[in-house]
Design a protein that fits this description.
Number of helices: 20
Largest sheet: none
Number of strands: 0
Structural class: mainly alpha
Length: about 525
């Protein structure tokens, strides 16, 4: 067991780094939208899914695949040489494809002014091979600190670049597409920071010996497949955003909306992305922490323990995801105005809030399937998510506009969640909710909802607190959400939704037990 401790510690370090980077990635979009408005937000969000896909491979997929192969200990140096050279070919090809294909991509989106933003993003492909390789080798050796610091440093510098660029260029009254280009440039400065941090931990001379060696494309094929599989969890919401980037604006145009208004509507719709991302991060941060242990339990053939871990992981994602979904729906109007200056599109954001619990269960399910080695269904599910979203967008957007896009997202996530549950059940890992659990969850959610609604009703009285509508909305959203969360957490503990044994499994579970007793 002592040999596993460094790996457990390393997994925890990467989990914390992942949470920090995801919070940074979601949080900066609120002040950014405030500076550039909904149209400026639309411009950036059109490009963001492509950045997200590159990062999914560079930060998670390929490094995890490399670390797995390295940790196995039965690979020759030539295998990793082949991987690095293969990544260089992929990176350079990706750069050429995106740089010279940018006009075609922008034309497909019906917005030719987006082409320079895609060209700027294409340079990230040139940083991709070294960052992926070094992160993977560090992780394979059990040293997670360089990877974690490079992830945090990358996001921090990227966010600073985006916000500083938006502030300076909007003050100078520059075109919003120039502001968007500066924001995309943040991905390059972030990548350079990641390279710098990795270089501090590893001399660059290590790479000189790799020159002039050939690529084993047969081996690369299996490696790329492994990297894609490890990326799928991160790519889930990226695929949904990609479909909206490719379709929503042009479908709004086809229905007679002006280009200016269509961009505004897409920007308003995109307000939901940081809210969903923050909710999912919160809901999955604990549940996914249990997943890495599944592979070890499976190798030890501890089926009973595996089933307990799976049940608890999904249970945690449901408990936190449902709270976030219901909470968002209740406070969305003041929250929308507090964060984004107006409450326009509140109905669309309320529908999108259902994505939090559905996305949390789906991401946890993806993690479980990865941990159990159930790989092939993950690929088909991911393809189905993208194609299903595209089809549903064509059906709903012409009828309902951005509300139709929100409905298509929620619908495809319902189908995805159902598919994951069925696949796990077919593999012998049936997920079930007891009547007692459902009852306790209903009481806890009802208590939270009642608290929030009562406070919102009281705070609707005119002529108190502030004459500023946005300040009043901020007070309403913050006060009611904090009170609702406190009541929900208290009810979870008093009703014993989680047993003492279950709480001990989670980080800081013992600390929770010192604050709340589960004895009635």
């Amino acid at each position: 067991m002592s040999k596993m401790n460094p790996w457990v510690k390393g997994a925890f370090i990467l989990s914390v780094a992942g949470i920090i980077t995801k919070i940074l990635s979601a949080g900066y979009r609120v002040p950014f939208q405030n500076m550039v408005g909904d149209r400026g937000f639309y411009i950036y969000q059109q490009v963001y899914p492509f950045y997200g896909m590159i990062v999914a491979f560079m930060m998670f997929g390929f490094p995890m695949a490399i670390s797995k192969l390295y940790a196995e200990g039965n690979r020759k140096k030539e295998d990793f040489t082949s991987i690095f050279l293969g990544l260089c070919v992929i990176g350079f090809s990706g750069f050429l494809l995106l740089y010279f294909g940018s006009p075609l991509l922008a034309n497909w989106m019906k917005d030719e002014e987006l082409a320079p933003l895609f060209q700027t993003l294409s340079y990230l492909f040139l940083l991709f091979p070294v960052i992926s390789m070094k992160r993977g080798l560090f992780q394979g050796k059990g040293n997670m600190v360089p990877t974690a610091l490079s992830q945090i440093g990358e996001q921090l510098v990227r966010v600073i670049t985006i916000l500083m660029g938006a502030f300076l260029l909007t003050k100078a009254n520059r075109d919003l597409y120039e502001v968007g280009n500066a924001a995309v440039f943040g991905s390059i400065t972030g990548g350079i920071m990641a390279l710098f941090i990795l270089a501090v931990y590893s001399p660059w001379q290590n790479w000189i010996r790799w020159a002039g060696l050939r690529i084993d494309w047969g081996f690369m094929k299996s490696f790329i497949g492994l990297g894609i599989i490890f990326s799928l969890n991160t790519l889930l919401f990226i695929f949904l955003q990609l479909a909206d980037s490719l379709q929503l604006y042009q479908l709004l145009l086809a229905e007679g909306e002006s280009p200016f208004r269509s961009k505004e509507l897409k920007g308003i719709y995109d307000r939901g992305q940081p809210l969903i991302q923050l909710g999912v991060v919160l809901a999955t941060s604990f549940s996914l922490a249990l997943v890495p242990g599944l592979a070890k339990l499976k190798s030890e053939k501890k089926q009973k323990e595996i089933k307990k871990y799976i049940q608890l992981s999904v249970k945690m994602s449901v408990v936190i995801g449902m709270a976030a979904t219901v909470g968002y729906a209740l406070i969305m109007e003041p929250l929308n105005e507090m964060l984004f200056e107006t409450n326009e599109g509140t109905d669309v954001l309320i529908v999108l809030s259902a994505s939090v619990v559905l996305g949390s269960i789906s991401m946890t399910g993806f993690g479980i399937m990865q941990g159990l080695g159930i790989h092939r269904p993950l690929i088909w599910l991911s393809i189905s998510v993208f194609l299903g979203k595209v089809i549903l967008n064509f059906l709903f957007i012409p009828l309902l506009g951005t509300l139709g896009a929100a409905i298509s997202t929620v619908t495809i996530l319902i189908l995805l969640t159902t598919g994951i549950i069925r696949i796990l059940s077919a593999k012998g890992y049936k997920l079930k909710a007891s009547p007692a659990f459902i009852k306790k969850m209903a009481i806890s959610l009802a208590g939270m909802a009642a608290t929030v609604l009562i406070l919102l009703f009281i705070m609707q009285i005119d002529g108190w607190f502030s004459d500023s509508p946005r300040a009043k909305s901020a007070f309403q959203a913050i006060t009611s959400s904090m009170a609702g969360a406190a009541v929900y957490f208290w009810l979870l503990m008093r009703l014993e939704v989680f047993s003492k044994e279950e709480l001990h499994v989670f980080p800081r579970g013992k600390n929770i037990l010192t604050l709340f007793t589960l004895r009635k």
